[in-house]
Amino acid sequence: MRKCIVTGGAGFIGSALVRKLLAQGDTSVEVVDNLLTGHARNLEEVRDRIVFHEIDIRHYAPLAAAIHGADTVYHLAAIPSVPRSIREPVPSHEVNLDGSFNVFHACVQGKVRRVVYAASSSAYGDTDVLPKEETMAPRPKSPYAAQKLMGEYYASTFHTCFGLDAVALRFFNVYGERQDPGSPYSGVISLFMRAAIERRNPTIFGDGEHSRDFTYVDDVVGLCMKAAAASNVGGQVYNAGNGNRYTLNELWRLLQTIEGVDLPAKFEPAREGDVRDSQADITAATRDLGHNPQYTFEQGLRRTLAWYRTQF
Ligand code: UD1
């Protein structure tokens, strides 16, 4: 059986990936997570089918021991928030950058066949042109964006210098079941869904015309597995998005329609480090990885909302 490691496997994206890997059948799935932003409950019904390592990726020795001999490492562990990286830059740097260095180094030492690295669309910053293509010069606007971009550079230089077969996927605002709305740093869709279900007015930072390429978790997880299987992609970077974009005003209108509520949003000043517009060009990922998003925005929202209704 092939051993796969998912760092951040107790997070919302990581735990969805764990389920999909288990469904494949021929894989032994091991999770590395320190439960800082992830939760054991995300793995509840699959807990006896995986090996769980409660390890912080800042600690090299236990991390390297867990990774040794793996076929594939999906590196998703992070402190995933732009505003948190501004308010708490030190842990954000240590986990997202030093931690990623540790993962790549451990993968070289442990002779891992392929690494799939969760990079971020935030690396682009504000570009003059949409959609955003991988060939555009990155313009990070926050520590989080800079850390994720440096992670890409490490992945590609480890490919060049040490032969590490690492491919980076720039995730575009992923949403779906198990995304935790419990923190001010939570993803906007999880916060808006909880507000709609609990009949509260959400907060929109800015004028609501900021836009995002919201990508349903199953599509991103599917792409991670395609990236693990693809040929000749070592050192490459691909957009992992849906290819569309919706403003926050449109998102909140659509959610109100689906949920049958009328709750005007409260408006507050835009957040520091916030990118204005985000939309992926998915041509390269489609061509080289077979990316083929399956869910329209409304389909993804309806599936996700159905799950949140069971929680709140
Ligand atoms: C950024 C990255 C994304 C990355 C994520 C990690 C960009 C374009 N995207 O997401 O790829 O995976 O960090 O967390 O940089 N907002 C509100 N009200 C709220 C919460 C948020 O209006 O209550 C707004 C934010 O100001 C932002 C948008 O909603 O304009 C999305 O915010 P969020 O879901 O936190 O993600 P990003 O910071 O865009």
Write a short abstract of this structure.
This protein has 312 residues and is α/β, with parallel strands linked by helices. The chain has 10 helices and 13 strands.
Task: Summarize this structure as a short list of keywords or feature phrases.
single chain, about 300 residues, alpha/beta, Rossmann fold, seven-stranded parallel beta sheet, two-stranded parallel sheet, 10 helices, globular, binds uridine-diphosphate-N-acetylglucosamine
Q: Tell me the CATH topology of one domain.
A: Rossmann fold
Count of extended strands: 13
* Helix-strand pattern: EHEEHEHHEHEEHEEEHEEHEHH
Mean pLDDT: 98
Folded structure, characterized:
This protein has 312 residues and is an alpha/beta fold. The protein has a domain at 2-175 and 216-244 and 280-294: Rossmann fold (3-Layer(aba) Sandwich), CATH 3.40.50.720. 40% of the residues lie in helices and 17% in strands. It is built from ten helices and 13 strands. Helix 4 (89-109) runs parallel beside helix 5. The mean pLDDT is 98. Bound molecules: uridine-diphosphate-N-acetylglucosamine (UD1). The site of uridine-diphosphate-N-acetylglucosamine has 22 residues, from helix 6 and strand 8.
